[in-house]
Write a structure and sequence with these properties.
Elements: H1 2-22, H2 29-64, H3 72-113, H4 118-125, H5 130-142, H6 146-153
């Protein structure tokens, strides 16, 4: 609706500009007839022109599959949505990487020491930094005793 009004205003302001340009020549009978004919045409066909404009806009919208001219709010909303989606993907990837790192450390410790004490498992599960988890995995592989690994954990 806003766009339709905008096009209508643009159209009629264009006509207004033409009429204003013709105004200095309004003493000329031919120009006066042109101004009068334009006014009569617009007055008699206003509903018809509006209907044609709506028909044109709906056809273009149907072909394009979207609104012709989104509002600034719609643009900002779409940009925010895209940014949020990108941030969500990045956070999801980081969380997935951290989960993988935690699982790898725990698997390595279970293979090496058979059991993982609950307090050590909780400390590992609380970690989220993939780089720290990678380092911890190396310590889990290289440590010969729980004490060596616990030193690396702290």
């Amino acid at each position: 609706m806003f766009f339709t009004r905008g096009i209508s205003l643009l159209f009629f302001s264009g006509i207004t500009e033409v009429l204003q340009a013709l105004k200095p020549h309004s003493d000329d009978p031919v120009t006066r007839r042109l101004i009068r004919a334009t006014w009569v045409y617009l007055a008699n066909n206003a509903k018809h022109l509006q209907r044609d404009l709506k028909s044109f806009l709906s056809t273009v919208q149907e072909i394009a599959g979207e609104k012709i001219m989104p509002t600034m709010v719609e643009i900002w909303k779409a940009e925010g949505k895209a940014e949020g989606k990108a941030e969500g993907k990045a956070e999801g990837k980081a969380e997935e990487k951290a989960n993988t790192g935690r699982n790898m450390v725990l698997v390595a410790l279970r293979r090496k020491f058979r059991q993982v004490p609950p307090e050590i498992e909780e400390a590992i599960l609380a970690m989220s930094d993939p780089i720290a988890l990678e380092s911890l995995l190396e310590h889990a592989i290289d440590s010969d005793t729980w004490d060596e690994f616990v030193m690396a954990l702290q």
